[in-house]
Amino acid sequence: MARLTLLTLVLVTCVTVLSGDDFTRFRGADATGVATDHPGLPTRWSETENVAWVADVPGQGWGSPIVVGDRVFLTSVVADEENLRPQSGLYMGLGVRDPAKGTHHWMVYCVDLHSGQLRWEREAHTGQPVVPRHPKSSYAAETSTTDGQRLFVLFGDLGLYCYDLDGELLWSQMIEPKKTNMDYGAASSPVVHDGQVIVVYDNEEESWIAAYDSQTGRQRWKTSRDETRSWATPFVWENDIRTEIVVPGENANRSYSLEGEELWSFDGDMSMLVIPSPFAAHGMCYISSGYVGDAHRPTFAVAPGADGEIARDGKYERSDFITWYQPQASSYNTTQIVYGEYLYTVYDQGFITCHNALTGSEVYDKQRFSPKGSFTASPWAYDGKIFCLSEDGLTYVIKAGPEFEILATNPLEELCIATPSIVGGNLLIRTLTKLYCISNAH
């Protein structure tokens, strides 16, 4: 196969990165999706307006870009043969029951944040897929993570790879693929904390959470999980009492110590498919799941310091550690966002709701996006606005606060599943075939 390259078209003068923290994992370093306000961050854009650069990305991948300094990292899987292309809209059925055809190339790319030019590319693995996948997903569904010195790339049913920032492979750990629910494949992204890379792999055969030494790749610990159908990214919750790893699940929401010991759990009567990822705000950890076919689509706000089983028989209101609970306030794919005192939920079928993040009380009920759209990417926020990217590539700009108002709609005209990333004055949006750098600072 001819060597694949990331082709770049620079549309305008390159952006100078003024400031901003590194974007080190799915939804940013703190996992909230809320960015620091910056004069370069735009409210309006299109395929040409406020575009610093755009790069063509070969293959298919739905991981968010991550950023260290002026390096942007993303992954993709390139197939030698044509396979089923994902399409927008709600999918309620079986996965692609057979592995994709032909030889595939599991790729890692490093792009310059200033220009969009390719710095390096590495082929982590070459071969034929051995497991099927969800028809809207990819064999590169996970967002990579970094500790600022090393890049940790997870291809969920294949392996965990560690590179230095110049692309040298430092170590790898292969993952034995297992049968997943409905043959949807893996999607949970890794996180890194205090020298450990944490990976969750829930499946129908042998689910687990494990930690690998960030320098050597040695497995430090591995804990079995009584779960089969969850894809949420684990959350390292650094609260006032301790640091713990929170992982939702259909059977139980659980917290683990940094040594892999279970700290607390409760049966949240979660949806049959658990996808939204936990995050923290106002001193609480927010946990949710909302498969569209389930009557119970809960959101929980959990206080720190819990131990053992914290709620029995669905008596969530009686728990000392569940600050509030809403039985029907969660989305299916997207992770919620807390901005200020409000919690916003973007529903896959084109609605948004707002609740008080401190009490759970409803601020406004379901409001429909217009024009209509479906959603997989999680929302993000800055400058008093909530941004919601539809699968059709249209971003709705919503006024933050107690009243629903669409301020702008920004089209990119291509399928969008990946959650965007923000660093300094740059917004990075990944579409099916491209990576856009959007900014006012040019």
What's the helix and strand layout?
Blueprint: E1 8-9, E2 51-56, E3 66-68, E4 71-79, E5 104-112, E6 118-127, E7 145-146, E8 150-155, E9 159-164, E10 169-174, E11 191-193, E12 196-201, E13 208-213, E14 219-224, E15 235-238, E16 243-247, E17 253-256, E18 262-266, E19 279-281, E20 284-288, E21 299-302, E22 308-309, E23 322-326, E24 337-339, E25 342-347, E26 351-356, E27 362-368, E28 380-382, E29 385-389, E30 394-399, E31 406-411, E32 421-423, E33 426-430, E34 434-438
Parallel strand pairs: 18-22
Antiparallel strand pairs: 1-2, 2-34, 3-4, 4-5, 5-6, 7-8, 8-9, 9-10, 11-12, 12-13, 13-14, 15-16, 16-17, 17-18, 19-20, 20-21, 21-23, 24-25, 25-26, 26-27, 28-29, 29-30, 30-31, 32-33, 33-34
Would you mind describing this structure in some detail?
- This is Outer membrane protein assembly factor BamB.
- Residues 1-19 form the signal peptide.
- It holds the Pfam family PQQ_2.
- It comes from Allorhodopirellula heiligendammensis.
- Keywords: Signal.
- With 442 residues, the protein is mainly β.
- The chain has a domain at 1-83 and 94-129 and 420-442.
- The chain has strands spanning 8-9, 51-56, 66-68, 71-79, 104-112, 118-127, 145-146, 150-155, 159-164, 169-174, 191-193, 196-201, 208-213, 219-224, 235-238, 243-247, 253-256, 262-266, 279-281, 284-288, 299-302, 308-309, 322-326, 337-339, 342-347, 351-356, 362-368, 380-382, 385-389, 394-399, 406-411, 421-423, 426-430, 434-438.
- The strands form 8 sheets. A 5-stranded antiparallel β-sheet has the order 1-2-34-33-32, with no helix packed on it. A 5-stranded mixed β-sheet has the order 15-16-17-18-22, with no helix packed on it. Strands 3-4-5-6 form a 4-stranded antiparallel β-sheet, with no helix packed on it.
- A hairpin with a 5-residue loop joins strand 16 and strand 17 (253-256).
- The radius of gyration is 20 Å and the shape is globular.
- The relative contact order is 0.16.
